[in-house]
Amino acid sequence: MKYVLVIGDGIADQGVDQLGGKTPLAAVECEYINRLAGGRLGMCQTVPHGVAPGSDTAILSIFGYDPRTCYTGRSALEAAGMGVVIQPGETSLRVNLCAIEGDSFDTAKILSHNGGSIEGEEAVTLMEDLIADPRFAALAAAVGFSIHVTPTFRHTGVIDAAHEPDRAKMRFTEPHNILGSEIAGYMPKGEMGAELTALMRVSFEILRDHPVNAKRRAEGKLAANCIWPWGPGAAMSLASFDSLYGKKGSAVSAVPLVWGIANLCGVDTPRVEGANAELDTNYEGKVDAVIEALRGGADFCCIHVEAPDECAHAGDVAGKCEAIRRLDSRVVKPLLERLGSVDPEFRILILSDHPTLLATRGHDGNPIPFAIYDSTKPGAPRKFDEAHARETGDFLEEGPMLLRALFA
After folding, report:
1. Strands annotated E in 160-253
2. Secondary structure class of 89 (helix, strand, coil)
3. Residue 6 forms beta bridges with which residues?
4. What is the CATH number assigned to the segment(s) 2-71+237-407?
5. Phi, psi of 336, rounded to the nearest 5 degrees
6. Are residues 185 and 86 in contact, defined by beta-carbon separation less than 8 angstroms?
7. Rounded CA gap, 216 and 213, in Å?
8. CA distance linking residue 115 with residue 153, whole number of Å
């Protein structure tokens, strides 16, 4: 039997006024996801109580790891996903390239946590020019800070062991949780807070009028003009996925966080050309990669779609609904059509890692709906949404119970 985990990042939500009080899952008709819900349908507490909700803690939990004992910080996972090895004594940081707006840094508001969806050569050019600027380089060297650049808005910062801070005393705000807010009240605080704030300030001064951003403004795009460090972490290790479940696995995603969790637990991470974290990701390429992995000997494959979460962070109701439709028609439908050619006996688990609320544009730690479909005993389709999942009374108290249920 083959097993597939489908993570629709942040698809769970609360009722939305623009949808007549319905959640996006309730408002959107999803023929193929509803077929999955004909199997086992219920709710699960993927984020342990007392743990900050996010894809890092939720997906660790879903994969079978307790974030209360193994988690050392989001950036450590993303570093692992990008091949950056964090050495003992070093501190990793997630570094977003954001879009802020204002006449000065002190009065600016944050408009986009992803720099207006910047990617490719533009992202690389901005970051490399920033790192090379003498003003930024001097401040960074004073605290042993370096940045590993990627062709996205996501980058990894590392504070060397010689300047190792007390991570427990570092205080950061996740940029995607304060969109539309004045940034002055959300600067890094505690250990190295002043130094990292100075780096943010000078990055705005350097990038504000950079030619890449002048071109982006002329094209009606947001200027990616400020770095935002957060999510401090330390070197991290996980027990192998095979030792937990006796399964060979693969994880198909476009985000370093998922690659990092997979890399640390010995799960393959095939890259898909054209896959990104946005609504226009290469859905078909992701499904192809799942089928190829399963045909190549994997027992289990995770396919992760980030677009619903990004739309929710942007407060885009229509976009989140469309992301769910595309998850249904361009991921779940072809999986149902094609998995039988790999093995007529297969199971699919679909879920939201955590709710991402359109009302707050932030993550939430409440339970999420899940469904487990078994090709050998499919049930009658039923609506997959929060209310119907709650009505079943099937409740899993912790995330690690999900894969155990899938493999049972």
Report:
1. 170-171, 189-190, 226-233, 249-252
2. coil
3. 303, 350
4. 3.40.720.10
5. -60, -35
6. no
7. 5
8. 6
Q: Report angle CA 86, 92, 96 to the nearest 5 degrees.
A: 135
Give residues with Cβ within 8 angstroms of 341, minimum separation 6.
291
Domain ranges of the chain: 2-71+237-407, 91-233
**Could you give the C-alpha distances from 95 to 76, 114, 156, 265, 408, in angstroms and in order?**
12, 10, 6, 24, 40
Q: What is the pTM of this model?
A: 0.85
Q: What is the pLDDT of residue 66?
A: 96
Nearest in space to 306 (alpha carbons), one of 292, 288, 326, 332: 326
Query: What percentage of residues in the chain have a pLDDT greater than 70?
Result: 100
Can you list the alpha helix ranges (DSSP code H) found in 143-209?
Answer: 193-207
- For residue 150, what are the contacts with CB-CB under 8 A and spacing of at least 6? 82, 123, 124, 156, 256
CA 76 to chain centre: 14
pLDDT tens by residue, 254-303 = 999 999 999 999 999 999 999 998 999 999 999 999 999 999 999 999 99
Contact 96, 164 (CB under 8 A): no
